[in-house]
Amino acid sequence: MKTIKDLFIPFIILTLAGAFGIYFRPLMIIDETRYIGVAWEMWDSGNFLVPHLNGVPYDHKFPLLFWLIHLTWAIFGVNSVTPRVIPLLFAIGDIVLTYKIYKELFKSDELGIKLIGYITSAIVLFQFYSSLLMFDVMLSFFALLGIYAMILIAKGRKGGFLLFVLSIFLGVLAKGPVVGAHFFALFLFAFWWVKDNLKQFYLKTIVGGILGLALSALWIVPAIISGGKVYGKGLLLKQSVGRIEHSFAHARPIWWYLPLIPAFSFPWIIYAPLFKSIKSNFKMLISEWGFRFVLIWLIGTFIIFSLISGKQVHYIMPELFALSILITRLLTKYKAKIYRFRVYGVLILFLAILFASIPFIVKGYFAKFINFYTIYLNTVIFAIVGIYFIVKRFTTLKSLITATAISTPIFMFALHSIFIDYLKVQDLTKFSKEIAKLQNSSYTIINDRKYADQFHFLGRLHKPIKVIWGYKNIKAFMQKHPNSAVVTYLDRRKKFDNSAILAKTKFRTKNAVLIDASKFEEFIKSIK
Asked: Whole-model pTM above 0.85?
């Protein structure tokens, strides 16, 4: 009951922020449309063992998210909304586990235990990812579960070993062996934070890791047998070793994560008492085993992922929760008679002024992407909130943290509502249904260059799309197969003959057009 009491408002904050994303935003190109497309192909074919993308075994991701999407469809029918609730539910689970980890690390810090949920739920980057149909908020849950289990094992508590096995097993099914990278530093440097029975700790975590991997093999082995050698090689080597040694995608320099630290801790990163507390309390806090634990977790994992070639913002999502724990512990050590967050209020008021100026600054082509009615609404909301934090004097740290956390969903509302017109034109549903009509009329659909399953779910396609690179090759194929149509992608500045196309849609920064074979050559000549 105490957990529910401490986390009830944080749950509401996160749910509200996530709801804005789900309501305003169509499935995002390319990631969300790809993952739900893969889930649709599994559902449509009845093959729930091996994920497929455009009819080919998909070795980039493990199956747990796809299975959970299928579960929602089995209960509520095939739709695009309930799958997007899955990451939001895992995000709520992330808050619960972060809360439990904090209680284990700092049992005597009653104020921190009450604040950890607010501080975590208010981090704007976390709110944004909580409604994205991706793997990392879910992976964070299993990484946090493994970290929580390690604490229980170190303390000799019951259930720790089984939770650790479960975290490895489900973490691998969620996104592969990378789940272990998020607590490898804690394992490696356990001698610095495990008080007693270090040998027993290592024994239980090693055996637990082996058992977790063995359980995941119950899916991996049959999937590789069914998917074939190429699929198996891609699943086990390309997606693990390949990303570490020389990434085939998202290769970044070693320092790439450093500038992102503020994003992982906003708005708390701009709260001056945080830095005052670091300066005055760090030496004392470093003597706490719980504080050392979080530092090892955060710094060790940060170094590990910096050394890995492939980098994306969401790859280090679990470490956002380590940051929130450190921030909470540092802030509870800051004492004052009056608490203020004027810099936050000034920032929000500045954004209100910026919003108010947009109608006078943004003209022409870019004005089409902005909803001016929601700009006025956000201007008023941000102005009120900004002025409130500028003038408000809080008598307790808890009241300041609570007020700040409750205000943060305005960022999600603004981000999505202001660009609602742009987001609407990024919806591929109508275009995808035109493709489906042609497929159902025995047309062969061609995609010019790389295809990421973006039309499969939205059009409920039942057949693969043929991928051909380059106009010459497409033309040659169409001459042999006149009952065909092609999807090609053009720069928005290009002008072309609209009478030659069957359908058109915005596709990220380009136009996607659907052209019948009989008019393809005419269309190519019309492009200017």
From this structure: yes
